[in-house]
Design a protein that fits this description.
The complex is a heterodimer. Chain A has four helices and no strands. By secondary structure, chain A is mainly alpha-helical. The relative contact order of chain A is 0.10. By secondary structure, chain B is mostly helical. Chain B has helices at residues 6-13, 17-24, 28-35, 44-54, 58-61, and strands spanning 2-4, 62-64. In chain B, helix 2 crosses helix 3. Chain B starts with a strand and ends in a 9-residue tail after the last strand. The chains are: A mainly alpha, B mainly alpha. The interface between A and B is small, with 5 and 12 residues.
């Protein structure tokens, strides 16, 4: 395993840029969610005022609730990237962070399952979130094993 | 489990940690890991050098003790 050099690999720079972009997108979503929802409900119901008024508040609450795990996940991603930047990759903290990311995505899938009561899209998102959560869980196992091997290597004199 | 009695041998030969690590060719940090029993493995080459410098046998430094707990591996 190479030591962390001063020059970052291109993939890590791309990862940092994408994480930053995602963070900005999430903040934008938080600000524009009511107007987006208004537009969407208008489109879906064809201007049905009673439909809009009954659906707006619960769906808005659900969508804001859905944003909370996303914030946690983005924070986790930034922490992970800072670990990578410092070369502390295969450590217990990294393993824990990936586990937290997986948990965030699973929580997201539960919220999407509730959302599917209003929009069928929620079911699709729920399935996607379950898949992603499982993927992260498996990757976590891989990193945990790598951390074990590294610890064994580090404590060989 | 394997117990490392390096400090006993180092005291007998009156050699310090820094001096021994320098002669063996490993960092003082690594030697300290070995001395305090935190090491998980030792290379034969390292053991060879330590025994040469301290003029002793591996049995003088390493000791086996029966342990009830489950070992990894």
């Amino acid at each position: 395993m190479k030591d962390q050099t001063s020059k970052l690999p291109f993939a890590t720079i791309v990862a940092m840029a994408m994480t930053l972009l995602t963070a900005l997108l999430v903040v934008a979503m938080t600000l524009f969610l009511p107007s987006i929802l208004d537009f969407y409900l208008e489109y879906v119901s064809g201007g049905n005022a009673s439909y809009i008024s009954t659906h707006k508040t619960p769906v808005l609450v659900l969508l804001y609730a859905a944003l909370v795990p996303v914030y946690a996940a983005v924070a986790g991603l930034f922490l992970l990237l800072s670990n990578v930047h410092r070369g502390r990759v295969f450590t217990r903290s990294s393993v824990l962070l990936i586990g937290i990311l997986s948990a965030c995505v699973y929580v997201e899938s539960v919220i999407c399952a509730v959302l599917s009561r209003y929009f069928i899209l929620g079911a699709v998102l729920c399935f996607a979130a379950l898949l992603l959560g499982t993927l992260l869980l498996v990757v976590r196992s891989v990193i945990a094993q790598a951390a074990e091997i590294k610890a064994e290597n580090d404590f060989t004199v | 489990m394997i117990i490392v009695n390096l400090d006993v041998m180092m005291a007998k030969r009156k050699i310090s940690l820094g001096e021994l690590s320098d002669k063996v060719g490993i960092t003082p940090a690594n030697l300290s890991i070995l001395k305090t029993g935190k090491a998980k493995a030792i290379r034969f080459s390292t053991l060879d050098k330590i025994c040469k410098i301290l003029d002793c046998q591996p049995a003088d430094i390493l000791e086996y003790e029966y342990s009830d707990s489950e070992m990894e591996d």
